[in-house]
C-alpha cells in the first residue's frame, strides 16, 4: 500500500468559523464537500484538538469562507497555524456577518455558506459534521483555491539549507533530524507523521 495515493485526492481550502457564548473563532480546513443537493448539505471534518471543533459542537452552526487563489500565505498562518485559544483571530481581519451572525471573510473569498449542523460522527481524531446550508452567496469571480494550488504557489518552498530531515506536506514545516518520532505532531498545523515526507 502506498499512502501517497491519497495525495491524488483533490480538495479546496476553506476558513470554517463559528460562534459560541460571544466567542467567534475559525480555522483553515481542506475537508469541506457538498454531499446532497436536495436538501443542500455539506460535510465538514475538523480535528478535535481545534478550538473551532469544540465551538461547533456547542453552537451547532458554522460558516464556510471558500478561499480564492488570491489568498496570501499570511491568511493561512493567521487562521491555520495558531489557535483561537491563544488569540482573537477576528481582530484586524476584514469580515462580514451571515444571517446567523457568524463571521465570514470579506476578502480573498469567492463564496460563503451559512450552515446548521444536523448530524455529527466521531471519527477518532476528527469530528465529521453534516450541515444544512441555510444561506450562501457568491462574492467574486476569482477562482476557488485548490489544495494543490496552495502547495505549488502559496506555501513558501523550503529553504535550500534545510536539506535533511522531514517536511510536513500540509504546511511545509521542517523537522530537522534523521528519525521522526512516531508520535510527532506538526507544531504549526497539527498534522501527524503520516503527513511528513523525508527530505535530503
Ligand atoms: C493548509 C492547511 C490545511 C489544514 N487542513 C485542516 C483540516 O482539514 N482539518 C483540520 O482540522 N485542521 C486543518 N488545518 C489546521 C488548523 O487550521 C489549525 O490546527 C488551526 O490552528 C486550528 O485553530 P483553532 O484551534 O483556533 O480552531 C489546516 C491548516 C493548514 C495551514
What does this structure look like?
The structure is a single chain. This protein is mostly beta strands and 200 residues long. It has 2 domains: 3-149, Pnp Oxidase, Chain A (Roll), CATH 2.30.110; 156-199, Rubrerythrin, domain 2. Helix content is 12%, strand content 38%. The protein contains 3 helices and 12 strands, in the order ββββαβαββββαβββ. It has helices at residues 51-59, 73-80, 147-154; strands at 14-20, 23-29, 32-36, 41-47, 61-67, 95-97, 103-105, 109-122, 126-138, 165-168, 174-175, 196-199. The strands form 3 sheets. It has a 7-stranded antiparallel beta sheet. Strands 11-10-12 form a 3-stranded antiparallel beta sheet, with no helix packed on it. The longest helix is centred in the N-terminal third of the chain and has 9 residues, at 51-59. The relative contact order is 0.17. The model has no long low-confidence stretch (mean pLDDT 93). Bound molecules: flavin mononucleotide (FMN).
Structural key phrases:
three-stranded antiparallel β-sheet; 3 helices; 200 residues; 2 domains; single chain; mainly beta; seven-stranded antiparallel β-sheet
Brief overview:
The protein has 200 residues and is mainly β.
